[in-house]
Design a protein that fits this description.
This protein has 450 residues and is α+β, with helices and mostly antiparallel strands. The protein contains eleven helices and ten strands. 45% of the residues lie in helices and 19% in strands. The chain is elongated.
Length: 450
């Protein structure tokens, strides 16, 4: 029962964190929009039926039933049709009608409020009438807020909780030495004793130095041990607060070659690649080490590179997801994962009582950091309806107007992004289908951390 409650708690924490992140994303749009005088009719968190709303000034603030997004409605998101361009109706074509409907919604046409839906004297309060750089600031305000949240969440993890790091403390002492490719789990009489066990090294011993060279972790100790097969080494250790000295002679063995992520390297046939190195038979203890705040930007940048690569390779990852979902193979933990999957992971983390509370809290906060960083990067994609699409339109307008000024041509006016509405709807439909598919995959073939 307690485990189930903890699981639900993890899901609730992620949902609340997501809602807060969405709300602040929209605040990032709202504040500069109001600062630049744009009329904002609505600020809503969620989609679907309205659950609660309250009008403050000219803006309606509220929550909707499905907390998986949000929006602010700004007057004049799309410019009106050019002079001489006839309004489109259903008889002129489906896509043309979509464009005209978008213009009408953008300008909030009504008999009572006037042709542009704004009282006389305030008709410059339209988004499309702003200078291009102000529109970019408004549209980047949302993603920028997610970037700030990513820095905050990752900062809490790094500075407050710390990151797992191998130390010079011995975590495991292997009793024997077996072949690198062996799958046996117990020692046999034919297996030689490991040098560490034979010398009396035990878990909890902290290695201070080897042959007088200070050691702070595997990065210091492993090269010394690997290059000293058959050569006695003097280990200065601390055990229970007392200084001790042990002599250990590394054994020349075939050990796996590992990559930058410490994973065994395999050849073209899938066989683990090995090399002959000195080996004493220990594993190092891992503990959380707090990092200075100066490391946060680098950590965010590294995370952004990984997430950005995932976005760039999205089509291939969709194919992989389909193969694992319908082929019954395990999900790639580094592949696409949706909100349902993130919620399940959060539930797994909080319900795992073998993890300390601090580690569980750190993992949840890290998930929220990754989620906000993904929102930041995804919204920069230069396609409507994403924020990056509006930024691209504003930049193109600035370029056109600059060239017109250089060549003394008439001002070409605002870029009519409303004409991209059919493409926007197509992209929105693809995103909707992808979202539904990922949710389905998260349910029938979920990613599991454990």
């Amino acid at each position: 029962m307690e485990s189930a409650l903890l699981y639900v708690l993890g899901v609730v924490i992620i949902v609340v964190g997501l809602v807060i992140s969405i709300g602040l994303h929209e605040v990032g749009h709202l504040i500069p929009a109001k600062r630049f005088g744009v009329r904002v009719g609505q600020y809503m968190i969620g989609f679907g039926p309205t659950v609660f709303s309250k009008k403050v000034g000219e803006t309606q603030y509220g929550f909707k039933a499905i907390p998986l997004g949000g929006y602010i409605s700004m007057a004049g998101m799309f410019p009106p049709a050019r002079a001489g361009e006839k309004p489109r109706t259903a008889s002129t074509g489906f896509f043309d009608t979509l464009v005209q409907d978008a213009r009408d919604a953008s300008l909030e046409t009504s008999k009572e409020a006037g042709i542009e839906g704004i009282p006389a004297g305030q008709r410059d309060r339209l988004f499309y009438k702003l200078p291009w750089w102000k529109r970019i600031i408004i549209m980047l305000g949302g993603p920028f807020m997610n970037l700030i949240l990513a820095f905050v969440f990752f900062g809490i993890v790094l500075v407050g909780f710390g990151l797992p790091q191998s130390t010079s403390t011995v975590g495991t002492v292997y009793q024997c030495v077996v072949a690198a490719t062996s799958t046996q789990t117990e020692c046999t009489a034919a297996d030689p004793a490991s040098p560490a066990a034979a010398a009396g090294l035990v878990p909890g011993d902290r290695i201070v130095s080897i042959n007088g060279t200070p050691v702070s972790g595997p990065a210091d100790a492993s090269p010394i041990i690997a290059s000293a097969a058959g050569t006695p080494l003097t280990f200065a250790i601390v055990r229970g607060g007392k200084d001790l000295t042990l002599t250990i002679t590394p054994l020349l063995t075939d050990r796996p070659v590992v990559d930058a992520d410490n994973k065994p390297v395999t050849d073209a046939d899938g066989v683990i690649v090995t090399h002959k190195v000195g080996f004493i038979g220990i594993g190092y203890a891992v503990q959380n080490v707090q990092r200075p705040v100066t490391e946060v930007p680098g950590f965010v940048l590294d995370s952004a590179r990984r997430i950005g690569y995932s976005i760039i390779t999205l089509p291939g990852r969709v194919v992989e997801l389909a193969q694992s979902t319908f082929g019954g193979t395990p999900r790639d933990p580094n592949g696409i994962i949706g909100v349902v999957g993130i919620g399940r992971l959060a539930g797994e983390i909080t319900s795992l009582d073998t993890l300390p509370v601090a580690d569980r809290a750190s993992s949840l906060i890290g998930l929220l950091g990754s989620l906000n960083l993904a929102l930041f990067l995804f919204n920069l994609v230069p396609l409507l309806p994403l924020d990056g699409g509006h930024v691209a339109g504003a930049l193109w307008e600035a370029i056109r107007r600059r060239f017109a000024k250089w060549f003394k041509r008439p001002d070409p006016g605002p870029v009519d992004v409303a004409k991209l509405i059919p493409l926007t709807m197509a992209i929105s439909s693809v995103l909707l289908v992808l979202t539904v598919f990922v949710v389905f995959a998260d349910i029938v073939n979920p990613v599991s951390l454990f």
